[in-house]
Amino acid sequence: MTTEINSVELATDLTIAWLSNPNTRTSADDVPAFLQSMYAAVEKLGGSPAAEAPEQDTQEYVPAVTVRKSLAGRDHIISLIDGKPYRTLRRHLTSNGLTPEEYRARYNLKPDYPMVAESYSEARRAMAKSIGLGRKAGHKVEQAAEGVATKAKRGGKAALDAAKEALGTND
């Protein structure tokens, strides 16, 4: 049994099947053109993958600035694509059709090459800490319980108010 496909026969069979469909309306002049396009499609699908492998992009990219200069400022990172400063490179890379990994590979950068300027990263970190991101889930409850415990030593109304404050209720 051979695994080779006869492209002419397959294209002919597909064309006959298409023409035998009652919904197909075509003139006799269009049949040879359809047969040729069907044959080309079958050849393309049946062709050897090694022969039709797309050529790899062997273009060597020259960076607009040196890597050292791109990281020289704390307030920005200079793009190696166009030499312009950015606080974060992610949107710039997306507009150029690249991911951070592709960008690093294109310019032979280390895997830890930053995509965000140092000062911008510090500002985002400070903002995240101020709103409570990164804390453990029960951290706030533990602090409130400690506050209630210290005020409970005094007893009475102070302990009751501290408990209401910790629970977030003001009845």
Automatic annotation (TrEMBL):
<feature type="region of interest" description="Disordered">
    <location>
        <begin position="148"/>
        <end position="171"/>
    </location>
</feature>
<dbReference type="InterPro" id="IPR041920">
    <property type="entry name" value="ROS/MUCR_sf"/>
</dbReference>
<dbReference type="Pfam" id="PF05443">
    <property type="entry name" value="ROS_MUCR"/>
</dbReference>
<dbReference type="InterPro" id="IPR008807">
    <property type="entry name" value="ROS_MUCR"/>
</dbReference>
<protein>
    <submittedName>
        <fullName>MucR family transcriptional regulator</fullName>
    </submittedName>
</protein>
<comment type="similarity">
    <text>Belongs to the ros/MucR family.</text>
</comment>
